[in-house]
UniProtKB/TrEMBL annotation:
<protein>
    <submittedName>
        <fullName>S9 family peptidase</fullName>
    </submittedName>
</protein>
<dbReference type="GO" id="GO:0004252">
    <property type="term" value="F:serine-type endopeptidase activity"/>
</dbReference>
<dbReference type="InterPro" id="IPR029058">
    <property type="entry name" value="AB_hydrolase_fold"/>
</dbReference>
<feature type="signal peptide">
    <location>
        <begin position="1"/>
        <end position="18"/>
    </location>
</feature>
<dbReference type="Pfam" id="PF00326">
    <property type="entry name" value="Peptidase_S9"/>
</dbReference>
<keyword id="KW-0378">Hydrolase</keyword>
<dbReference type="GO" id="GO:0006508">
    <property type="term" value="P:proteolysis"/>
</dbReference>
<dbReference type="InterPro" id="IPR002470">
    <property type="entry name" value="Peptidase_S9A"/>
</dbReference>
<dbReference type="Pfam" id="PF07676">
    <property type="entry name" value="PD40"/>
</dbReference>
<keyword id="KW-0645">Protease</keyword>
<feature type="domain" description="Peptidase S9 prolyl oligopeptidase catalytic">
    <location>
        <begin position="438"/>
        <end position="647"/>
    </location>
</feature>
<keyword id="KW-0732">Signal</keyword>
<dbReference type="InterPro" id="IPR011659">
    <property type="entry name" value="WD40"/>
</dbReference>
<dbReference type="InterPro" id="IPR001375">
    <property type="entry name" value="Peptidase_S9_cat"/>
</dbReference>
<dbReference type="InterPro" id="IPR011042">
    <property type="entry name" value="6-blade_b-propeller_TolB-like"/>
</dbReference>
<keyword id="KW-0720">Serine protease</keyword>
Length: 650
């Protein structure tokens, strides 16, 4: 009988030694040598494969965007140049005008209420240390508000009179945020307050009062109110608790609209007045995934995550009575994505399985719905794309684990010949969720003859807080077997003519960790793995990740002191002696979340064992590839690796 994972905790002092002798320090490009960067530069792809990936990347949709106050222009993000930049259209389906350019990823935050200025964010080389800028609404050069090396500067909001831009930054303390406001006319910066912790603004009032959130982890937060007259913070919700809270000012005096899972396994919306909660949305076995109110507090919008499909609703913000929204036949996801400041127009984003996302503008006065932005599908008929089916597999303790499956037409379970190879893709987070809808990335593998599988293992979002917290800290040891159980199910159930399919595993961030765990802790369950920006050792990761993330990640993975034994056992490097199948590791040198040392140490350990291991490091990327050429290389080499090791004879 196979020993339990808890039994492994005391099984091997050698394993503990192996995990603790890894000693890289630091993060970012400066933490590795130029020789290492050059040695692990991505190799050129076969021309045919490169063209295939390039064509797939041309299947894209612009971002939902920000409407100008007069509703006559829409500003949105688009990667058509190969790097995320800001574009403008001056009416439905008109020719787009490029607003920003260059090599740095740029996005739009908002436009001033007077319609004169855009507020933009710009990052360099994936460092996640963005700055914020101003640009005239009609275009032109950028004016920096703040962009400091190794410092994060995040936009918060623009005052209703267009006088100030509010923002936060960790320029004073690297693991906490100070709040500022910038006066557009004078360029003067004023500090408002700075408190220890990860703070952000949720809403504001005309008198300068701020509704702020203090995030204690990805799933626990507090709500406070900051008063400009006194400079003091007033506690409102969540203090001394470990629950999720998000809030906005409601339409009525003294009212908050609160999004929380405090009173249920699932997130709901509540009206909060005088310390009392009143439910707004009905009790369902699905999360209210998000919500918003328009600037004038006329309408309250919310979306519900129905097992990986998104449905959106509207309420009158004053009476909380339902308001009808347009219906979209065949849509997997419908989201409200902003609108004009006067509330007269609303952006509706619609996603289906067979086309990139489309954006519409709903005019509330006329009731007319107009498609503003068209997706791009050059040379490819997306109507033939595989539609994800929602299925499940059993864990070793009998729990059904949901998964989305996309199958090539020739890979029906009762087909003749050899079984189709399978690629299992684990999402990041780990508090994230794979969902239905359009997936050009998944279709690339389907077109190559792979069955493409996306599990939502325990610890994923979207299935209630009990499910979400099943992998917190040392509890991960009880559920990490979900990674292996996917392969066990596939081998047993998806074979043909007595032959089990070959299976690959891949993922990014936490999905990269899941891949390394699959190839080491559960060696032999998968035949090949591709880990992108993944954690190889929980201890070295927590020691070296950026300071602003460390407390948050300790809350998720465990404390390096009191949970040390569990973290060691959960580290793929601990189980490196079990590794026996090919592994490709892809990493950005500037990654502030998962340091590049995580990739290097895993590759070196695998290489010493004589495993067919490969390492690719992008010198100009961070936590994932942003630039077109790097995306092509990352995707192309992943597909090449899976083709080589899952389709070749063993």
């Amino acid at each position: 009988m196979q020993p339990t994972l808890l039994a492994v905790l005391i099984a091997s002092s050698l394993a503990v030694h192996a995990a603790e002798t890894v000693n890289y320090k630091g993060l970012g490009k400066a933490s590795i040598t130029a020789e290492t960067l050059e040695k692990f530069r991505a190799k050129p792809l076969d021309a045919t494969l490169s063209r295939k990936v390039q064509a797939t990347l041309d299947l894209r949709a612009p971002g939902s965007g920000v409407l100008a106050p007069d509703g006559k222009s829409l500003y949105f993000g688009w990667r058509v140049t190969g790097v995320a930049q800001v574009w403008r259209i001056d009416g439905p389906q008109t020719f787009p005008v490029q607003m920003t350019g260059g090599e740095d990823a740029t996005s739009i935050n908002d436009i001033t209420p007077d319609g004169k200025w855009l507020v933009l964010s710009r990052d360099r080389k994936g460092e996640e240390n963005p700055g914020i800028y101003l640009q005239a609404a009609k275009g032109g050069p950028l004016t920096v508000i703040q962009h400091i090396p190794d410092v994060q500067t995040f936009f918060e909001f623009i005052s209703d009179d267009s006088r100030y831009v509010y923002y936060r930054s960790n320029d004073e303390v690297n693991d906490s945020y100070t709040f500022y406001r910038y006066e557009l006319a004078s360029g003067r910066k004023e500090k408002l307050f700075g408190e220890k912790g990860s703070w952000s603004v949720l809403d504001h009032r005309a008198d300068g009062t701020l509704l702020v959130q203090k995030s204690n982890s990805n799933s626990a937060a507090e709500i406070w109110q900051w008063h400009p007259a006194t400079g003091k913070l007033e506690p409102l919700l969540g203090q001394g608790e470990k629950e999720e809270f998000e809030a906005r000012y409601g339409a009525q005096p003294g009212e908050l609209i609160v999004h929380t899972n405090k009173f249920s396994d699932f997130r709901r919306l509540y009206r909060w007045v005088g310390g009392k909660f009143e439910a707004i949305t009905p009790e369902k076995k699905w999360d209210v995934a998000g919500f918003s109110l328009d600037e004038q507090k006329q309408r309250l919008y919310y979306s519900v995550n129905e097992g990986g499909y998104t449905r959106s609703y509207a309420l009158d913000a004053a009476t909380l009575k339902p308001i009808a929204l347009p219906t979209f036949t065949g849509a997997d996801h419908v989201n409200i994505a902003g609108g004009t400041r006067d509330g007269s127009k609303t952006i509706v984003s619609v996603g289906t399985a067979t086309a990139p996302r489309s954006s519409y503008v709903l005019d509330w006065k006329s009731g007319k719905l107009t498609q503003w932005v068209l997706p791009s599908t050059p040379e490819i008929d997306t109507a033939r794309f595989a539609v994800a089916s929602l299925e499940s597999y059993p864990s070793r303790d009998g729990v059904a684990i949901p998964m989305f499956v996309r199958r090539p037409a020739q890979c029906a379970a009762d087909g003749a010949g050899a079984p189709c190879p399978v690629v299992v893709h684990f999402h990041g987070g780990p508090e994230a969720q794979s969902d239905a809808g359009f997936s050009a990335y998944g279709q690339l593998f389907v077109d190559a003859g792979f069955i493409y599988v996306e599990p939502n293992v325990r610890g994923s979002d979207g299935y209630g807080k009990q499910w979400l917290h099943l992998d917190d800290g040392p509890k991960r040891l009880q559920v990490v077997g979900d990674i292996e159980d996917a392969a066990v199910h596939i081998r047993k159930q998806w074979g043909r003519n007595g032959t089990a399919p070959r299976i690959g595993v891949m993922g990014g961030s936490y999905g990269g960790y899941a891949t390394m765990a699959a190839m080491t802790m559960f060696a032999g369950s998968y035949d090949a793995g591709v880990s992108t920006v993944g954690i190889s050792n929980m201890l070295t990761f927590l020691e070296n990740t950026a300071p602003y993330r460390r407390t948050n990640r300790i809350a998720e993975y465990g404390d390096p002191v009191k949970d040390r034994a569990a973290l060691i056992q959960l580290s793929p490097t601990t189980h490196i002696d079990k590794l026996k199948d090919p592994l490709l590791i892809i990493q950005g040198a500037s990654d502030p979340r998962v340091p590049v040392g995580e990739a290097v140490q895993m590759y070196e350990a695998a290489n010493k064992k004589g495993i067919a291991a490969e390492l690719i490091i992008f010198g100009d990327e961070g936590h994932g590839a942003q630039k077109r050429e790097n995306q092509v290389a990352a995707i192309g080499h992943t597909l090449r690796f899976m083709e080589r090791y899952l389709k070749a004879a063993k």
